[in-house]
Amino acid sequence: xxxxxxxxxxxxxxxxxxxxxxxxxxxxxxxxxxxxxxxxxxxxxxxxxxxxxxxxxxxxxxxxxxxxxxxxxxxxxxxxxxxxxxxxxxxxxxxxxxxxxxxxxxxxxxxxxxxxxxxxxxxxxxxxxxxxx
Length: 133
Fold this sequence. Notes:
single chain; 133 residues; mainly alpha; 62% helix; flat
């Protein structure tokens, strides 16, 4: 088996040391990326932000059902919001901030059932008995 000459080994080791030193010394550049506005998410005034909050609250099923129960149509709601003052819209937005943002507890119930089924499956695999009293 042939070995590398001493001069070649020294040159390769020196080259590798220089290469690894230079790779670790080069500074990394990082920065924030500018965001782009889309047509649906552009908020250019406090009124627009408040209107967005109110519209999301009105999309809630419970709120929409209550409005229908009172005889208010979605078209009436849009007209009233368009003609409301800034103060009224802000009051509605702050009042609707505590409402749930959507959905119901169905996802939580399904998740809980899946967890229970997994626990039962693991117990069966481990040959443990499940006794419910």
